Amino acid sequence: MITVEAWTTIRYLSAQGKSIRGIAKELGVSRNTVRAALDAETPPHYTRPPRPNPKLTPFLKQIENMAIEQHFIGSRIIRELRLLGYDGGTTPVYAYLRGIKQAANKRVTERYETGPGEQAQFDWSFYTVMLGDVPTKVVVFGLILGYSRRKFYWPSLDATQPSIYEALEAGLRYFGGAPLRLLVDNDRSLVTAADPARFTWNNHFLELCGHYRIEPVACQPGRPQTKGKIERPFFYLEEHFIKGHAWPDFDAFGRALAAFVTDELDLVVHATTRQRPLDLFAAERPVLTPLPEQPFVGSHEILRTVSYDCLVPFAGSRYSVPWQYARQKVWLRPSQGSQLAIRNLQGVEIARHRFAAQRGLTVLDPAHYAGLRQDAPRTWLVAEQAFRQRFPDLDDFLTGLRTQHPNNALSHLRAILALAEIYPETALRCALARAEEYNTYSQHFIRSLVGYTEALSAPVAVSPAQPLHAARLTADLRVYQNILEAAQ
């Protein structure tokens, strides 16, 4: 080992243009020594090699096991060593533990390259962006395929469990297939308990993975290096897309983010693979696991029954659905922290609305009622004919309706005909009969009655007549009549 002075001299002479052979001859050292000094970026320093402690040496494996596997602190390790027969001092033990810790901290995490379709990584990051003139906190979810490095980003206004699952599912649908394994962080929406001793997956997340036949893999706690393929693209996203830009609104932000992926990230040559992600994806796409036709509907979804007027309640407001789904059950899922997605029981999205600005509002889409409005009669004559075609024996109802509502009878009759498109004829007949009984010819009254179809149409149970026991007369009843007359 050369001195610091010799190291400095060698590098100085090399900067002057002298050859390795000339420097070695001038300083009287070997050419290998000169090469080593030129290759070393830091000056040499002497380190005394550690000398084994004879009393501690027999217990080194036990110390490593207690420190690395069982995570015992130093005082606990010393106490256990005493029980094993160690009679040395505490200083050598702590010195050895420091060496173990330094070695662990200096471990180099090797990049784990995966084959086509083997693994994907999923994570998200928070940003504050300018939407219009308002600083807005947004979340960007990222899914990246391990082999091709192809990326998918999904924006949201929150990171709730439904939003996390929606983003992951959107990424799988975007790629058109699922990887064998999915590497994720230890967020509570994915992992209930991250401690290796009692590790537990979130049940809802397992439902999603089971639906798409994916094996979940959790990132090691405290070691984000195991998820480097996704952590670094968030840095690239922030530097090349987020910083210095503003968008008119959240929708514009989402469109720009999608364009950034397809127009730039898919086409730029990756530093590690030396190929474009889109080109490598051509080899990865065929081996991805095919996706089920139906999207994931887990136990966290909200099940609601559509009302007679084609509305479903959510968070204090009501939202419309196509009229064909009146009185049917539908699934509700918040989407991107700003919208409500409504699906039928087959998982097909049938409606989507922006969240109401405040509680108590009704959010309507006119297209959801288009079919009903096209068939609605515009004159009393047409409406009357349509009613009589359905109910030829209820002319008295029409008379009562016109008598009770001379100015807006057509409006009431239109609404009743619309109910006939939704409810069974027997249920509506029962409601119309009850309206005649109470002499209340109102669409509102009939609408309130028709929801109780079974109660109105169910026959009333009547107990069978029981025969009375015949009483035997023991005296002529005229005797009692004579007594009453005498008393008067």
Key phrases:
about 500 residues; alpha/beta; Nucleotidyltransferase, domain 5; six-stranded mixed β-sheet; four-stranded antiparallel β-sheet; 19 helices; about 15% strand; elongated
Provide a short characterization of the protein structure:
The protein is 42% helix and 16% strand. It has helices spanning 4-15, 20-27, 31-39, 60-69, 74-84, 91-105, 161-175, 203-212, 228-242, 250-265, 277-284, 370-375, 380-390, 395-404, 409-422, 425-438, 443-450, 453-457, 478-487, and strands at residues 119-131, 134-145, 151-156, 181-184, 191-193, 200-201, 215-218, 246-247, 302-305, 311-314, 317-320, 329-335, 339-343, 349-354, 362-363.
Written account of the structure:
With 488 residues, the protein is of the alpha/beta class. It has five domains: 4-39; 57-105; 119-287, Ribonuclease H-like superfamily/Ribonuclease H (Nucleotidyltransferase, domain 5), CATH 3.30.420.10; 302-368, SH3 type barrels (Roll), CATH 2.30.30; 376-454, no CATH class. 42% of the residues lie in helices and 16% in strands. The strands form four sheets. Strands 1, 2, 3, 4, 7 and 8 form a six-stranded mixed β-sheet that branches. A four-stranded antiparallel β-sheet has the order 9-12-13-14. It has a three-stranded mixed β-sheet with strand order 10-11-15, with no helix packed on it. The longest helix is centred in the middle third of the chain and has 16 residues, at 250-265. Mean pLDDT is 82; it is low at 106-111 and 458-471.
